[in-house]
Design brief:
It is a single chain. With 283 residues, this protein is an alpha/beta fold. The chain has a single domain, classed as P-loop containing nucleotide triphosphate hydrolases (Rossmann fold). Helix 4 packs parallel to helix 6, helix 5 packs antiparallel against helix 6 and helix 6 packs parallel to helix 7.
Length: 283
């Protein structure tokens, strides 16, 4: 499957080879991050960096820790060890500089609020200074960019899956943050919604923001500037051509990886697209 992220991707800056070096200039840096739930580690010793004007794809099998990594960067799950920094400072002091688009499945869509109200919630944690005029401007702009004008007054339970996802992305944009984290933003969407969101991701990157996308689709990794392949720990990180290889995929997916002729077929647990993702030919 062709990557929508690649389809909408502007000309990319030069590749950054090898393991990233963390610096205070980097919008988002993760150092030695370990995350555990009830004493059970789900991520071990993760290192990665999201530079300016870069699209970072976090990929890996179900249960690899992609969502946990996104949430740990936001302080939404406790860290067993390690640090997360925004421009060289602890994320706890810089949380307002990170925008977040959660998975659609994690939201209570029966809650009686309108699309407009959900987008406006993005301003609650927005960077300062804030004024009422700036809040209205940010919300109106986000609604326009996600083509939600005719839907703004509708309640969430009246919207389709693609419309709901566009509402979540609009909420993330309304924060006007320097770093944008999106958890499975293209999963299970109609083509029109997927294309609009992919275009937004490309626009945010071109505007100078660091954009991090957690995705199960390896085609999305091919369309990114950098990829991080997770399987509880970082299997590989760097330019996608160096990360999405047979060797690395075999380590990450294990017996869920089946070779078919010269291609690779990812046989996952069926939680996303009916049981399999074709990732094309890899060396």
């Amino acid at each position: 499957m062709a990557s929508l992220l690649a389809t909408h991707r502007p000309d990319s800056p030069g590749d950054l080879r090898g393991r990233p070096e963390h610096s205070a200039a980097s919008p988002l840096s993760v150092h030695g991050l370990t995350v555990a739930y009830q004493g059970r580690p789900v991520l071990w010793d993760v290192e990665y960096e999201a530079p300016d004007r870069q699209l970072i794809a976090i990929v890996g099998p179900n249960g690899a820790g992609k969502s946990s990594l996104i949430k740990a960067c936001l302080g939404l799950v406790p860290k067993a060890s390690g640090t997360v920094e925004v421009h060289g400072r602890p994320v706890e002091r810089q949380r307002r500089l990170i925008g977040y688009v959660p998975q659609r499945s994690s939201v209570d869509w029966d809650f009686p609020v309108s699309a407009l109200e959900v987008v406006a919630m993005g301003r609650y944690g927005a960077p300062r200074p804030r004024t009422r005029a700036l809040d209205h401007q940010a919300v109106d702009e986000a609604i326009e960019r996600l083509e939600l004008g005719d839907l703004a007054r509708r309640y969430l339970d009246e919207l389709s899956g693609g419309q709901r996802q566009r509402v979540l992305v609009a909420q993330g944009l309304a924060q006007r943050a320097e770093v944008l984290l999106l958890d499975e933003p293209l999963s299970g969407l109609d083509l029109a919604s997927a294309e609009r969101i992919a275009a937004i991701v490309a626009e945010e990157r071109a505007a100078g923001r660091a954009v991090v996308v957690a995705t199960h689709d390896l085609a999305d990794a091919a369309g990114a500037d950098r990829a991080v392949l997770l399987a509880g720990r970082v299997v590989a990180a760097g330019p996608p051509v160096d990360v999405v290889t047979r060797e690395h995929l075999s380590k990450a997916y294990g017996d869920r990886l089946v070779r078919v002729a010269d291609d690779l077929l990812i046989v996952d647990d069926g939680a996303h697209r009916g049981g399999g993702d074709h990732c094309g030919e890899h060396r």
